[in-house]
Amino acid sequence: MQIDKFEMERMQCLYENQVEYNLSESGVQPLRIEELLDEHGSLERFLSQELWYPESNGSELLRQRIASFYPDCTPENVTVTNGGSEANYVTLWTLLEKGERLACMIPNYMQAWGLGHAYADGVDVFHLVLSEEDGKLRWALDLEELERAVTDKTRVILVTNPNNPTGAVLTEAVMESVLKVARRANAWLMVDEIYRGAEVEGSISPTFWGRYDKVIVTSGLSKAFALPGLRLGWVVAPPELIEKIWIGHDYLTLTPNMVGDHLGTIALETSRREALLARTRGIIRKNLPFLEEWIEDHDDVLRYARPKAGAIAYFEYDFPIRSSELVDTLRREQSVLIVPGEHFGLSKGFRVGFGYNIEKTLKGLARLDVLLQRLSC
User: Which structural domains are found in the chain, ordered by start?
Assistant: First the structure.
């Protein structure tokens, strides 16, 4: 079996700690352990935790607390993984086979794209498209393309909601349209909801869980919860599929780590969970206006639709340069790292993260200005 290099992850691994301004991150400023333990678990208890193997599917209390994040969900619907990326991997590894196909939303975190080509007969795509409505740009799902992409060979339909890299959130009407297509094909609907809880405005995004008997949700603590270093993710699915995924997990990393299980259980206690999500939303809502002041000065060369969730913004351009070349030039000349649209299945565009120190983010964007001015000439 041959599997393609995961371009975005390799780029970030190589350069995110080498540049002066890393704007490639898609989360918010991570919490410290002492912040997580404050009033919710003593430092002494944490330090006395024996580093033995935890339950391979996650401790019972952790799975209970994950289940409480979803309607009519039980611990039997949950298995715990090492990060959301492992949740995606083990689920697709379990489901995809040769002779079948994956239907994948684009733009997207391209992990599923690579796995679909490795484990199935290939990938059919359907797009979020940038369009104008009431004088504003917005990302919307091309439902006709979705209908064409899903055939009788489709085993899994992959959707990311809220979306990476655009921050788009599907409306209830569009969610129902996606479910209708999945039911028609009798396909599994796998939804990566790792940005759910990081909304720019309003209440938490609706989940796909509970709307169809073949829905799978993957998520974790890295984005909306600002705890990426715990490497704790999960799969929510019907119990019979959870059993199969668990079997596959036994051949991979076997168990989550004990520290992640312990601290994740604290983080997902209901009141603490809501406090963490409120913190994330506060950072996003505080920082986004500064980013939008910057984009106002660039609306002649960049196209932008305001994200609905996530500390990420995606910009399209018309310069005669590939996005990977633009990003590489920016890194080499200005020591700034952003993510090219090509790493999400798009062409001329790039993603900027704005969930960390906003003053430093704006300094990095000022260096991007130098390159944009040169390309505009």
Answer: 7-32+273-376 (3.90.1150.10), 50-270 (3.40.640.10)
Give the strand pairing for 302-304 and 312-317: antiparallel
Cis amide leading into 256 (omega within 30): no
Given a contact cutoff of 8 angstroms between Cβ atoms, the answer to whether 36 and 267 are in contact is yes
Nearest CA-CA partner of 238 in 215, 207, 211: 215
Token pair for residue 284?
A: 């996003």
The sheet carrying 339-340 orders its strands as: 302-304, 312-317, 349-353, 339-340
Q: What is the pLDDT of residues 190-244, one digit of tens each?
A: 999 999 999 999 999 999 999 999 999 999 999 999 999 999 999 999 999 999 9
168: tokens are 């788009």
User: Nearest CA to 193 among 79, 309, 67?
Assistant: 309
Q: Give the phi and the psi of residue 279 in degrees, each rounded to 5.
A: -60, -45
Q: Which of 285, 109, 68 is nearest to 193 (CA)?
A: 109
Please name the residue ranges forming H helices in 235-357: 239-250, 258-267, 270-296, 323-334
